[in-house]
Specification:
- This protein has 119 residues and is an alpha+beta fold.
- It is rod-shaped.
- It has a three-stranded antiparallel β-sheet. It has a two-stranded antiparallel sheet with strand order 4-5. The protein has a two-stranded antiparallel ribbon with strand order 6-7.
- The chain folds into two domains: 56 residues, no CATH class; 30 residues.
- It contains two helices and seven strands; from the N terminus they run E-E-E-E-E-H-H-E-E.
């Protein structure tokens, strides 16, 4: 059995110069980390405000903002669609030559050849 740390977010505050700095840790074995803004630890007026700030920080870490982009449709530079059409036409030709008919979606499609009279 492996000894893995438990996911157990914890929140605290540390008094500093008459104010409070919020602290948090995500795993039970983690060290305490400061809540930072622009690289500097933030400070709050009360301990309860500091704990709320720590909870907001953890919530932001666990639920990041989701961003999505719409990509432009990529041109078929490899010619895959044309290859598929040619392959389907070839398969239909092979079926007609072997079976005398083309089978589409499990059903035989009747093929009639009509010769036009030349005038």
């Amino acid at each position: 059995m492996t000894n893995t740390p438990d996911f157990l977010p914890d929140y605290s505050s540390m008094p500093f110069n008459g104010r409070y700095r919020p602290l948090f840790k995500l795993l039970s074995t983690d060290n305490w980390r400061f809540v930072r803004k622009d690289g500097m630890p933030i400070e709050c007026d009360t301990a309860s405000q500091a704990i709320e700030a720590a909870k907001d920080c953890v919530r932001h870490i666990l639920n990041p903002e989701i961003r999505a982009e719409q990509a432009d449709k990529v041109a078929d530079v490899l010619g895959v669609e044309q290859w598929r059409r040619e392959r389907a036409a070839q398969a239909a030709g092979d079926q007609e030559a072997v079976l005398g008919a083309v089978i589409v979606k499990g059903r035989q499609v009747k093929i009639e050849r009509v010769r036009r009279a030349r005038a």
